[in-house]
Amino acid sequence: MKNIISLTLILSGMVAKAQLSLPPNGDNQKTITRQYIGPVAYVEIVYNSPDVSGRDGNIWGNVVKYGMFNQNFGTSSPENPSPWRAGANENTTIEFSHDVLFQGKKVLAGKYSLHMIVKEKDPWTIILNTETRAWGSYFYRPEEDVLRVESSPGESPFTEYLTYDFITRRPNELTIAMRWDELMLPFTIEVPDNNEIILSTLESELKSFQTFQSRNWSLAATWASNNDYHEKALKWVNTSINDPSVGERNLKNINTKILVLLNMKEREKAIELALELINEPFVNAVEAHNVGGVFFNRGEKISASEIFKKNYKRFKGAWPTNFGMGRVYAIQGDFAKAIKFLERSKKNVPGKNPALIEYIDSKIRILENGEEFD
Fold first, then answer.
1. Which of 20-24, 321-325, 356-360 shows the lowest per-residue confidence on average (mean pLDDT)?
2. 56-78: buried (b, 16+ CB within 10 Å) or exposed (e) per residue?
3. Which residues contact 194 (CB under 8 A, 6 or more apart)?
4. 22 or 198: which leads in pLDDT
5. 32-45 in b/e burial notation, b at 16+ Cβ within 10 A?
């Protein structure tokens, strides 16, 4: 008898796991769509997608009823009416990898079922509920809600299959639109502390196999510096250059440190490092000129001039050092000398590139008009 019971339990378990690959109920195709908000956080929606199937203009208020309604099954009753499942078949679910603001209201990371109370004129109610494994909204209980918010529907081009689209995407937020028939319902998802999430992820990754590549420390430092994590950026870029195991003193890493110092308002340290860089054996004249360009483009024209002059001295007039000296004299207001060096620079343009020669000529014309060129 015990053997029979055991066999029955085993077989029932096998049946539960052995799902046949049959078409979905009602041919409402299953869709999984995921969109990242920045490089780490994401939102994922899983839903079954019914079609209009000739019911144009008859979806809202008929196929999908207005308000809450009794489905006469599960826990749905006149006393406990149900919202719309916002899809077909199983629960439509929405998952957040991190804490978010949903229509401006805080929601913790996790997976929720998505329901809607459809209304003819008033804003609709969107519901997030903790029951995610039920069929439709037959077993909906309001006490399991974690959030109710409102959104107003709008007109939309005809959509045959119910679809969730990501209609706006920004670094910290996105807007999702549920579309079906000729209607859409938008709602926003925001990750308010996205930079903290990215920083935490970078810190974790730099403890993994990624730690053994100097380039990764430099890339992380660049992101941190551009997002005002200055002390962290300085620590990481110093690791990329000086660490006895992974550090590499190369153009990329030193350029990153110059950027970090400039963002920290450490101009003197930045120019000192830039002038040291020009003497490095792995730097050529073009690369050194580009370092000067970084300072010039940030309005640090005097510092840029120091770099252009040192570059000219080290590489003895090689391209593009004459152009750099043209900038130096233009900054000083000596336009005649600036034109002289720009004319020289035209003679050693790589490959006699006509577009580059015309670019230099355009700067000469500006100087001839008594103006400094940018």
1. 20-24
2. eeebbeeebbbebbebeebebee
3. 37, 38, 40, 41, 171, 172
4. 198
5. eeebebbebbbbeb
Radius of gyration of the chain (CA): 32
Residues in contact with 331: Cβ distance below 8 Å, sequence separation at least 6, in sequence order: 301, 302, 304, 305, 372
pLDDT, tens digit, 9 for 90 and up, residues 39-83: 999 999 999 999 999 999 899 999 999 999 999 999 999 999 999
CA distances to 122, 260, 287, 320, 352 from 284, in Å: 67, 22, 5, 10, 19
Rounded CA gap, 312 and 318, in Å?
A: 8
Query: What is the domain partition of the chain in residue ranges?
Result: 24-190, 194-368
For 339, half-sphere exposure in the C-beta direction (CA atoms, 13 angstrom radius) is 13
DSSP string, 195-218: HHHHHHHHHHHTTTGGGG-HHHHH
Average pLDDT, integer, range 33-40: 96
User: Looking at residue 59, what DSSP letter applies?
Assistant: T
- pLDDT recorded at residue 284: 97
Structural contact between residues 179 and 52, judged by C-beta atoms closer than 8 angstroms:
no
347, containing H or E segment: helix 335-347
Higher pLDDT, 23 or 271: 271
Architecture of domain 194-368: Alpha Horseshoe (1.25)
